[in-house]
Amino acid sequence: MTGRARTNLKDLLPEELASFVAELGEPAYRARQLFHWLHGRGATGFDEMTDLPAALRARLAETASTGAATVARRLLDPRDGTVKYLLAMADGAAVETVAMRYRYGTTVCVSSQVGCRQGCIFCASTIGGKERDLSAGEMVEQVLAARRGAPEPARVNRVVVMGMGEPLENYDELVRFLRLLREPFGLAIGLRHVTVSTAGLVPRIDDLAREGLPVTLAVSLHAPTDPLRTKLMPINRRFGVQEVVEAALRYQQATGRRVTFEYALIADTNDDLGLARELGRLLAGTGAHVNLIPLNHVPGSPLIPSPPERIRAFRRELLALGVSATVRRQLGTSIEAACGQLRRRFLDGRPRVRRPEAALTAVRP
Q1: In this structure, what DSSP letter does residue 36 have?
Q2: Which of 48, 169, 339, 357 is an active site residue?
Q3: Of 10, 38, 251, 286, whose CB count within 10 A is highest?
Q4: CA terminus-to-terminus distance, the chain
Q5: Secondary structure letter of residue 210 according to DSSP
Q6: pTM for the full predicted model
Q7: 348-359 pLDDT per residue, tens
Q8: Are 59 and 350 in contact (CB under 8 A)?
């Protein structure tokens, strides 16, 4: 098909899909059927929607898209069941998605942008900068692709927006994605089971607090002082440590959701026990939680993870000051499950392939 781009129906909220269907002269209940096929069943093509009239399916194929992605790479860690996907979107853009298995079910880590421009020195996603934002439907498709590609049938219990990109920089599409996630005819994931990570875009943290969406906020802090955080995260020049922490605590107060501060421990960089005590004093009495993360080493980077004994000592300092702290369990370490690593290797090793949207259908490994 030539001419204008076809509408990705996965981007549309139920009421918008109803308007789209009405313009085709179809009754309102067709929109509910279509939404369920797209978001609930995860259909990759209109031909799968067998309870829709053949004539309607043909018209949809001419004017719209299911937004299905192609699985460019799929890596399974046999030790813990983590699966990492490199997905090709309709324009060929490559994004990463990770499905992690826990005792309580499956958590999917979703990317919000193609690449990232935040410039954090410890993250592979920022190498090469940001190409573009992802749409809400493209974020939904990551969850569905992870569900389709699961080694065994599994319901997605939780979603974390912690993949490539800065979610709050893609604010409108993020909020639309969250609203789509909770729809009962779709994935029906309660927003109390969703975590959104941010490098600390203070105005957008305040905006999100006013949305009435009970998601958990995770703030990438990684240092308790401005000089050190600025070296690690250039965004600190815009929003300093105290400003970011205060915004996070406003979010916690407004939503009743405990905030998590993420802290990637880097050997001989931010793992000094004096820094642990500074972090503890900064957060003592706030009720916030600290998630200590052993650094995922990026090939070619001089930064390496702190040794386990230093991580344990860092946590003890926080606990001694009354700050809740845990060490994140490492999953998918054998398959480059850290953010941006698989995409970087893929793009370094082969040219981008752009394909027409009509050619994209999801692959079931």
Answers
A1: I
A2: 339
A3: 38
A4: 28
A5: T
A6: 0.90
A7: 554 443 333 322
A8: no
